[in-house]
């Protein structure tokens, strides 16, 4: 699957939670996200973006990831001030996305391709943000890895 589904993922898209690595996490993710549009999950991402990356985005089934990743992109592109929190959240997101690239390269690539210019936005935000130098350097390296993988 490479394109984002037209609507929120179905129960079939989520699969049987009992068959995943840690069923309680899948049930919790389903409680938070199931049946919700991108617009409906934005407040959830605003409250605890890093946790949602680690606990949910990292382990979503492919069709669920393909749909909801756009909310995560939108949050980073538009929903955050250029401060240390941006550095932390962008770092967590890029780390999770690298794991997703290893597991599902086609879905990963399709997700990034729906957001042309976003890496340039990330670079600009890191450069103008109030992010410590070490974190900024790590983020720039991670962004370079994404850029190279998309070529």
Structure description:
By secondary structure, this protein is mostly helical. The protein has one domain (11-150). 72% of the residues lie in helices and 0% in strands. It is built from eight helices and no strands. The longest helix is centred in the middle third of the chain and has 20 residues, at 84-103. The two termini are 20 Å apart. The model has no long low-confidence stretch (mean pLDDT 91).
Provide a short characterization of the protein structure.
The protein has 151 residues and is mainly α. It has helices at 11-14, 23-33, 38-55, 62-78, 84-103, 105-113, 118-128, 133-150.
**Residue-averaged pLDDT:** 91
Radius of gyration: 15 Å
CA-to-CA gap between the ends?
20 Å
Main sheet characteristics: none
How many distinct domains? 1
Tell me the fraction of residues in β-strands, as a range. Answer: under 5%
What's the shape? globular
List the helices and strands and how they pair.
Elements: H1 11-14, H2 23-33, H3 38-55, H4 62-78, H5 84-103, H6 105-113, H7 118-128, H8 133-150
Top keywords for this entry?
151 residues; mainly alpha; globular
